[in-house]
């Protein structure tokens, strides 16, 4: 890649005293279709090369950390939905496992495996959107529409468990609100059977596609050292060649029981990010298949377990709430958040769609957190954007942005 | 598993003596406290030392303790040694009237926006930060909203005009208010005549 300064020198220089700049300011966003979310980029352009980029974020800041200080644990779950809304079940379960860590709740194995299935489905739907959108930004729209029906199937699986699709609010502290029904299992089986074919076709469409490769190879690269210094995590860090994965390094939800590989790239450019996400989807499929097999091994009473025994935080059964006074009172107490939490400080993290999604929860023994801080991976790695696109073409800036998988909701919290 | 918490404690005490204090391990994570002007020195030591290698800044944030006179604001750093897979957390406390802290941006690029965010919400002044301006809130804001003196709005307040949110005026959808501050259904308003406000 040519040095920006030398390109500038070859340009026509305006006469002295001229008020005109040699560079053009280009405003990309806040609601430009190429930005995939509400954030703005002020680019200084020299012809079609980017001299500098200045990111503005915060357009959809909703003060989640402040609101969380007034809410009992359950009322915080819907806030986490709205961070990375491409994979909200991971946020929900991440939040619930944080609460479980604070409350020292042990979940049964079957619950862990059910959670793993849901989280890996969420990871697939997250990566699926990101990868197919990289395709769209490189000019291949077909793949995006084609895989969308499998995201739809994943959403139907969520729907059959929790009743909603995008902002799921799935699960409870201790497990799930209900056992997986036959409909869920049927849909999951269908997904396991049909999806690999579709993913294979997406791979065939893009992986060795010459246009796609030339657009993405070398676009927005980052070295492993710089990526670590910038606080990259998740697929973007792994594309730079660091095999850090929270699922392996600090396992939660019994991830240590599963056999899977952590794919890594080497150059940290758009193509490597695409490859890492693609391979992660295949690995997620492997994990879901294993979890499905493991769940089949539970027999009799064990096969009915879908939550831990934590009456203080787990809502009583609906039919009891309607017929028994004690259950009704207890239901009310939990819903209104009238249960004091233990005093403590806990940091818990899960591997979200974009990387290490951390929850730093401080409880002073009240009914609501004293302070809750979300470590949003997107917010931290978007800082590197200027370094990634400096000297690149405008079209590279767009494709870099989509391959970083920036989610405005997660960034602004 | 090479690096243990005992070893980290030993190394820190060896280097900084009693200045690094209050070692705890709540929920399996090493925590300690550092004097406010030592944050950078400790972080640099943790970064450079060949054995410790804490070279990843996981996150940093602030906490407000209004009753903690003289040390109202706590700034919390989460560091990670990825080679040995060890995490730790340390805190510094500053006076809210003079919340000056050294920036970590020279060590970690990741600290840049995190410190801007902390400044934005708590007003912590990071000395040496290249661009300490608000990041998520509007630029014109003249207070630091996450401090505890700004409670969230009372959800039962009555004086707010909700008309813009489709809730039909301050009395609620489908209702009107009378002079003596009682709420009646809109269909009843003909019966009370000019008592409406």
Structure explained in plain terms:
Chain B: Residues 155-165, 186-197 have a biased composition (Basic and acidic residues). With 413 residues, chain A is mainly α. Chain A has two domains: 4-56, no CATH class; 64-412, Cytochrome-c3 Hydrogenase, chain B, CATH 1.10.645. Chain A has 18 helices and six strands. Chain A has a three-stranded antiparallel β-sheet with strand order 1-2-3. Chain A has a three-stranded antiparallel β-sheet with strand order 4-5-6. Chain A is globular and about 85 Å long. By secondary structure, chain B is α/β, with parallel strands linked by helices. Chain B folds into two domains: 5-127, 2-Layer Sandwich (Beta Polymerase, domain 2), CATH 3.30.460.80; 163-195, no CATH class. In chain B, the strands form three sheets. In chain B, strands 1-2-5-4-3 form a five-stranded mixed β-sheet. In chain B, β4 (73-81) and β5 form a beta hairpin. Chain A binds chain B through residues 57-58, 61, 63, 65-67, 69-70, 101-102, 226, 228-231, 242, 244, 249-250, 344-347, 349, 356, 358, 360, 362, 370-371, 373, 375, 379-380, 382-384, 412-413, and chain B through 26-27, 29, 31, 55-59, 61, 63-64, 76, 78, 82, 85, 87, 89, 108-110, 112-114, 117, 121, 135-137, 145-146, 152.
Keywords, separated by commas or semicolons:
heterodimer, A: 413 residues, mainly alpha, Cytochrome-c3 Hydrogenase, chain B, 2 domains, 3-stranded antiparallel sheet, 18 helices, 49% helix, 10% strand, B: 197 residues, alpha/beta, Beta Polymerase, domain 2, 5-stranded mixed sheet, two-stranded parallel sheet, 4 helices, 19% helix, 24% strand, elongated, NAD (chain A), quinone (chain A), transport (chain A)
């Amino acid at each position: 890649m040519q040095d920006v300064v030398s390109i500038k020198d070859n340009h026509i220089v305006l006469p002295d005293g001229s008020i005109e700049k040699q560079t053009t300011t280009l405003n990309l966003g806040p609601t430009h279709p190429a930005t995939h979310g509400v954030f703005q980029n002020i680019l200084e352009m020299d012809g079609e090369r980017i001299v500098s980029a200045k990111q503005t974020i915060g357009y959809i800041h909703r003060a989640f950390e402040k609101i969380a200080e007034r809410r009992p644990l359950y009322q915080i779950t819907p806030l986490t939905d709205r961070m990375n809304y491409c994979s909200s079940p991971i946020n929900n379960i991440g939040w619930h496992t944080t609460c479980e860590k604070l409350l020292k709740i042990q979940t049964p194995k079957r619950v862990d495996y059910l959670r793993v299935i849901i989280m890996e489905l969420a990871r697939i739907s997250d990566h699926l959107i990101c990868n197919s959108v990289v395709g769209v930004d490189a000019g291949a729209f077909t793949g995006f529409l084609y895989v969308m029906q499998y995201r739809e199937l994943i959403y139907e699986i969520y729907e059959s468990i929790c009743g909603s699709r995008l902002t799921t609010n799935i699960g409870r502290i201790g497990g799930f609100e209900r056992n997986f029904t036959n409909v869920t299992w049927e849909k999951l089986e269908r997904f396991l059977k049909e999806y690999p074919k579709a993913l294979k076709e997406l791979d065939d469409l893009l992986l060795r596609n010459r246009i796609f490769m030339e657009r993405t190879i070398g676009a927005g690269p980052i070295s492993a050292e710089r990526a670590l210094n910038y606080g990259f995590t998740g697929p973007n860090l792994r594309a730079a060649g660091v095999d850090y994965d929270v699922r392996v390094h600090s396992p939660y939800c019994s991830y240590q029981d599963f056999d899977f590989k952590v794919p890594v790239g080497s150059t940290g450019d758009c193509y490597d990010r695409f490859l890492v996400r693609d391979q992660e989807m295949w690995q997620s499929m492997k994990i879901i298949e294993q979890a499905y097999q493991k769940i089949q091994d539970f027999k009799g009473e064990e096969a009915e377990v879908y939550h831990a025994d934590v009456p203080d935080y787990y809502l009583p059964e609906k039919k009891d709430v309607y017929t028994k006074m004690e259950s009704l009172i207890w239901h009310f107490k939990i819903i209104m958040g009238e249960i004091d939490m233990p005093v403590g400080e806990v940091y818990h993290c899960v591997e979200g769609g974009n990387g290490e999604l951390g929850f730093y929860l401080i409880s002073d023994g009240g009914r609501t957190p004293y302070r809750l801080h979300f470590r949003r991976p997107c917010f931290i790695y978007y800082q590197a954007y200027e370094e990634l696109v400096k000297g690149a073409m405008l079209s590279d800036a767009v494709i870099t942005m989509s391959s970083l998988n920036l989610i405005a909701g997660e960034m602004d919290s | 598993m090479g690096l243990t918490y005992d070893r980290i404690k030993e190394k820190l005490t060896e280097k900084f003596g009693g200045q690094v204090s209050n070692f705890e391990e709540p929920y399996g994570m090493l925590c300690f406290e550092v004097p406010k002007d030592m944050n950078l020195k400790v972080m640099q030591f943790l970064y450079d030392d060949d054995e410790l290698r804490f070279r990843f800044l996981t996150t940093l944030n602030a906490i407000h303790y209004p009753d903690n006179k003289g040390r109202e604001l706590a700034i919390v750093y989460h560091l990670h040694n990825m080679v040995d897979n060890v995490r730790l957390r340390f805190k510094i406390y500053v006076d809210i009237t003079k919340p000056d802290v050294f920036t970590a941006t020279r060590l970690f690029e990741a600290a840049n926006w995190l410190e801007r965010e902390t400044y934005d919400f708590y007003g912590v002044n990071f000395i040496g930060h290249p661009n300490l301006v608000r990041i998520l809130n509007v630029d014109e804001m003249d207070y630091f909203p996450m401090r505890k003196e700004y409670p969230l709005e009372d959800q039962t307040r009555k004086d707010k005009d909700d008309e813009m949110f489709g809730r039909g005026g301050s009395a609620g959808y489908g209702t009107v208010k009378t002079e003596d501050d009682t709420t009646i259904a809109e269909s009843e308003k003909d019966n009370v005549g000019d008592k409406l406000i």
